[in-house]
Write a structure and sequence with these properties.
The protein is of the alpha/beta class.
Length: 237
């Protein structure tokens, strides 16, 4: 069944107005008609079965029926990734949503080649991935922030899995505590010596290896999230 992320509050009998683009998707792409059912969620009120109640020139109106799943959240996992090429950032955000990350934080390191980032595009990708995977929340995507500033404001209760291309412990051996966690992926040129030294000295950081090969940022992000999930994520719950 079609799943749609909406903004309004959801409750029994509530009228829900999707965006114009969403309305066009429902009626022109998926060919839904009056009385057809779909599932809707907003990240707060769980998942609801809804019916197309009206089809207007400026969109459709949905009517929420019954709740089919109460609201739940996935693992408390953040992905921090250096800004890379547009297509690779988009892949990273999509896979982060599919693999259960709650937040994607874009960062600028000393070797980051900064490109323009369209957060609206990345938000749309995260929403679409959440709709397709069945999760009931959508990961947030943050504006790029310097790595030093992120570390300066770190919440010490959250562990940081630092993926170091120069070596570290295997993920399965190093990551044994439950969430909250964050995963840090560097730029294509790697971390600078100064950044690596600071990261390894932090008390909340665990340096890990992703194997003997140098991975591109998008591949590294997918591999790291998969290994984390296998070790302590909600795949084991």
């Amino acid at each position: 069944m079609i799943r749609l992320h909406v903004i309004p509050d959801l409750s029994a009998g509530a009228a829900v107005a999707p965006t114009l683009d969403q309305s066009r998707y429902l009626t022109q792409v998926m060919r839904l008609k009056l009385g057809d059912d779909l599932l809707v969620f907003n990240g707060r009120d769980g998942e609801w079965r809804a019916t197309i109640a009206e089809i207007l020139k400026k969109g459709v109106v949905l009517r929420a029926g019954e709740q089919v799943r109460p609201q739940t959240l996935g693992p408390d996992l953040e992905l921090i990734v250096a800004v890379v090429k547009k297509s690779r950032v988009e892949t990273i955000v999509e896979k982060a949503a599919e693999l259960g990350a709650r937040r994607v934080r874009l960062t600028v390191t000393q070797r980051t080649n900064v490109e323009h980032v369209r957060l609206d595009r990345l938000d749309a990708i995260a929403i679409e991935a959440a709709e397709q995977t069945g999760r009931l929340d959508v990961p947030t995507v943050d504006d790029p922030e310097k790595l030093a500033a992120i570390l300066d404001g770190w919440d010490g209760a959250r562990r940081l899995m630092f993926c170091d291309e120069t070596g570290g412990a295997p993920v399965a051996a190093a990551v044994t505590e439950p969430d909250p966690w964050a995963i840090l992926i560097g730029p294509e040129g790697g971390f600078s010596p100064e950044e690596r030294e600071r990261l390894r000295a932090l008390p909340f950081t665990t340096a890990v290896s992703l194997g003997p090969r140098i991975l591109r940022a998008d591949t590294a992000a997918i591999a790291a999230m998969t290994l984390w999930q296998a070790a302590v994520g909600d795949w084991e719950r």
